[in-house]
């Protein structure tokens, strides 16, 4: 049986124990090399700690180790006999919420930690809102530090109810709540002997059982072109292939396709995968596609089956997570990067900003600041083959970029294509 890969992100407030949970997960699943363990043990002893500080397995930056916090997104890779895992340990401070957007944008699952003593706080709500906006398919609530509340079931149940109610308001219908003590190892990899009232899975058991990755039939086929391959050698004088990573769906030889934004049509003549010809390929495989007709195709174009080709648009209505320290304002000129295509654009309107306390929308805020979540309308100078984010996380997402220095300003999740989307630019 083939081993699949689950991508997941951890999030929570400062000192909720995210890095300790991740360290415990790596340590108890025997995914830590001997020299890494020895280095952590030495550093822990130098701080006067008798037991190794498991958080140090993920806190890799010197500033993080000195302050005992996570600043950057720390990626770790480990595996069990059943599955491979790509883990993104994201920061807890409010000013680093934007890093969670990076870590969770490709995640199949988000683990949100809550300190059992504090319950659901504002930063918890912020992280659930980000997970909901990014449409992370599965959410785990890890109620940590249960040893500090005497392993009381009533404390866990109250937090799980409050969290689930808030998540439902955001449209997150699937929440798995697990009581844990990352420091003691309870219900992380091994079941807890101190919480015999809990009969659910451990964190690792749940991570090993949830569905992972792309299912080719669930999303329409979208193939952004990355590079045109023309060797023009004696062996391949007429070879013209298009290097792509399939963003979603599946592609088959003989299938009629449309190339966007030109709208020209052709047929898939061949698909090359790892140096050999195949009859079909699917997301997220990287392939070289050859078309039957010699039409003009370049980087930034998108190949899609003619029957389900997306509608072109220059009007983008979306929810954005603002990532930059510079405000985002109406009238601002930006670059919009969608898959492999980058076009000039202007922020026509910032219609509202999300208030996390009660999930209300503040109308006409004027600007978005770092970590704000808001609604915008963007006008592009060239048409985009944009899907709604609800339909496809890959081809419904985009970045807004500063055209002067290339700084990423915001990450966007598009609505459906509005009427009149292909009107000319004024």
Structure in words:
This protein has 426 residues and is of the alpha+beta class. The protein is built from 7 helices and 24 strands. A 6-stranded mixed β-sheet has the order 2-3-1-4-5-6, with helices on both faces. A 6-stranded antiparallel β-barrel has the order 7-8-14-11-10-15. A hairpin with a 2-residue loop joins strand 18 (333-338) and strand 19 (341-355). Helix 4 runs parallel beside helix 5 (122-133).
Helix content: 10-25%
Q: Report the count of strand segments.
A: 24
The stretches of 5 or more residues where confidence is low (pLDDT under 50) are 61-71
Structural class: alpha+beta
Task: Give the helix tally.
Answer: 7
Give the oligomeric state of the chains in this entry, treating copies of one chain as homo and distinct chains as hetero: single chain
| Major beta sheet, strand line-up | 2-3-1-4-5-6
Cα-based radius of gyration, to the nearest Å: 24 Å
Bin the strand percentage: 35-45%
Shape: globular
N- to C-terminal distance: 56 Å
Topology readout:
Elements lengths: L3 E9 L5 H11 L5 H13 L15 H6 L6 E6 L3 E7 L7 H8 L4 E7 L6 H12 L4 E7 L8 H17 L5 E5 L23 H5 L15 E7 L11 E5 L4 E3 L3 E5 L3 E10 L2 E3 L1 E3 L3 E6 L10 E4 L6 E11 L5 E2 L3 E6 L2 E15 L4 E4 L3 E2 L4 E13 L11 E5 L6 E7 L12
Parallel strand pairs: 1-3, 1-4, 4-5, 5-6
Antiparallel strand pairs: 2-3, 7-8, 7-15, 8-14, 9-13, 10-11, 10-15, 11-12, 11-14, 16-22, 16-24, 17-21, 18-19, 18-23, 19-20, 19-22, 23-24
Helix pairs in contact: 4-5
Keywords summarizing the entry:
24 strands; 426 residues; alpha+beta
Compact overview of the structure:
With 426 residues, the protein is α+β, with helices and mostly antiparallel strands. Helices cover 17% and strands 36% of the residues. The N and C termini lie far apart (56 Å).
């Amino acid at each position: 049986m083939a081993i699949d890969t689950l991508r997941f992100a951890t999030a929570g407030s400062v000192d909720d124990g995210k890095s300790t949970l991740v360290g415990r997960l790596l340590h108890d699943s025997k995914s830590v090399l001997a020299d890494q363990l020895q280095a952590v043990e030495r550093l822990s002893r130098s701080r006067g700690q008798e037991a190794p500080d498991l958080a140090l397995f993920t806190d890799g930056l010197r500033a993080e180790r000195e302050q005992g916090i996570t600043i950057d997104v720390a990626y770790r890779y480990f595996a069990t006999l059943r599955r491979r895992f790509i883990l993104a340990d994201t920061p807890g401070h409010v000013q680093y919420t934007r890093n969670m957007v990076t870590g969770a944008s490709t995640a199949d699952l988000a683990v949100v930690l809550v300190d059992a003593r504090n319950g659901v706080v504002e930063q918890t709500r912020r992280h659930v809102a980000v997970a909901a906006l990014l449409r992370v398919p599965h959410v785990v609530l890890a109620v940590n530090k249960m040893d500090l509340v005497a392993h009381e079931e009533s404390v866990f149940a109250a937090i799980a109810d409050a969290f689930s109610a808030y998540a439902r308001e955001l449209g997150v219908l699937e929440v798995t709540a697990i009581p844990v003590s990352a420091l003691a190892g309870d219900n992380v990899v091994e079941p807890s002997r101190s919480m015999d009232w809990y009969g659910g899975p451990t964190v690792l058991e749940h991570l090993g059982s949830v569905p992972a990755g792309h299912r080719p039939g669930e999303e329409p086929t979208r193939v952004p072109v990355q590079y045109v391959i023309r060797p023009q050698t004696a062996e391949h004088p007429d070879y013209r292939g298009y290097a792509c990573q399939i963003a979603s769906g599946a592609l088959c030889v003989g299938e009629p396709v449309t190339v966007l934004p030109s709208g020209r049509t052709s047929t898939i003549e061949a698909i090359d995968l790892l140096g050999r010809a195949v009859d079909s390929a699917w997301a997220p495989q990287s392939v070289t596609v050859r078309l039957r007709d010699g039409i003009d195709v370049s980087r930034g174009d998108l190949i899609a089956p003619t029957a389900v080709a997306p509608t072109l648009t220059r009007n983008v209505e979306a929810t954005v997570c603002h990532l930059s320290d510079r405000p985002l304002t109406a009238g601002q000129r930006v670059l919009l990067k969608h898959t492999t295509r980058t076009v000039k654009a202007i922020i026509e309107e910032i219609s509202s900003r999300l208030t996390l306390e009660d999930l209300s929308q503040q109308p006409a805020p004027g600007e978005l600041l770092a970590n704000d979540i808001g609604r915008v309308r963007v006008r592009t100078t060239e048409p985009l083959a944009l899907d709604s984010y609800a339909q496809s996380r890959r081809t419904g997402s985009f970045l807004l970029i500063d055209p002067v220095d290339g700084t990423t300003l915001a990450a966007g999740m598009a609505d459906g294509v509005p009427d009149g989307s292909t009107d000319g630019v004024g």
